[in-house]
Model the fold of this input.
Amino acid sequence: MAAYDLLIRGATILTASESFAADLGVSNERIAAVGALSGPAKTELDARGLIAAPGGIDAHTHLDMPYGGGATADDFRTGTTAALFGGTTTIIDFATQSRGGSLTAALDQWHAKAAGRALADYAFHMAITDMSAAAGRDMARMVREGVTSFKLYMAYPGVLMSDDAAVLRALQRSNEVGALVGLHCENGAAIAELVRQARAQGHTETRWHALTRPPEAEAEAVRRAAALASMAGAPVYVVHLSSAAGLEEVRRARLRGVPVLAETCPQYLYLDAQEYERPAASAVNFVIAPPLRAKSNQDALWQALAGGEFQAVATDHCSFPRRSRPGQPGKDRGLKDFSRIPGGAPGLETRMPLMWEAVQKGRISPSRFVETTSTGPAKVFGLYPRKGHLGPGADADIVLIDPKHKTTINAKSLHHAVDYTPFEGLSIHGAIREVFLRGKHMVSQGRLLGKPGDGQYLSRGQRQFCL
Done:
């Protein structure tokens, strides 16, 4: 008769392919057994009527990210606290190379930011801003350190942007070291010119943020990214895809045999460009990049999500306060000039509930919920089978959802470090009730049980996902 550290009884267990009623037995931080279980347990929890899903994996966050003489509002303590309350037990954040600096120095810096502060498990992508010969050599060391994905920006000229030659070199090198390159796909040079023209004509209102970053700028960059990936003979991952036009370019590339993976975000599924017509003090909170799109884009994104065309739903969590404060630039920087608004919004705590709402509304299946919030990112980013499923041997990252509990998203009840959410007032059918990280009870019915330092660094392997 087995003895368990934790025995969860009677939950409806969701996987990326099925759902069934069973018990979950946990021993030594791992799932030991699934089925009709008997035997003693140190802790037993009755989960009848609840949904059990694998802990969420958010593969796109920006915590404690330098910006404008300061940093984003959420650090690894507040950001991972919010993540846990939202059912996300693992994040992959972006360590970012400084111009002319080494990838090794950047990784050391981000380890220092996270160590002892994170409540959820965490891993890193490496964002490359200077694809030099030295950076190419460092890429191999990053892979040995468990950083098996790299990001380059096709936007933000003079700050983060890489030209086509640099992107091509990174893609080629990724093949050599067994890594994956992700790209922020917007035509940075064209956007910079559109911004210059708008400001020269006196257009400074918030709505010009979206007007100067049109869907065509994303679609063109996705098309170029696919062409470069084809030249390199390498896969490429498109981050935060926001438009039907960009999605169509992904489809065209795949038809040509180019392995283009893609993620989207809840903001592009639930919100649209009408938010920029609000008074400036409110509209600035919705400034993200890529921007919110015309509502007509949403059906295409939802259909692609339901049909398995997206490998992940991530947040691009990048929080700035509404009002600037010491060390934290605020959205108010751009009240009179859209080009000065820090781009980004909080989303770590609301991702899983919003995607569960999509299940309740019939937009996606329960299996697609699991695939896009956990299993998919685990496979794409080298965390599977340790993460991303509720099977024997996996880390006991378990989320229990109460499907009957209706909640309304409200900034006052959330745990990130800013006093707003772009999803204010949206109703959610279902609530995150219990959250376990490697078998440790981290959140219970709205109470935080975990502490900073409970999160561990995850050294990742190579992707286990093919189109």
About this structure: The first strand starts at residue 4 and ends at 14. The longest helix spans residues 215-232. The CA atoms of residues 103 and 372 lie 29 Å apart.
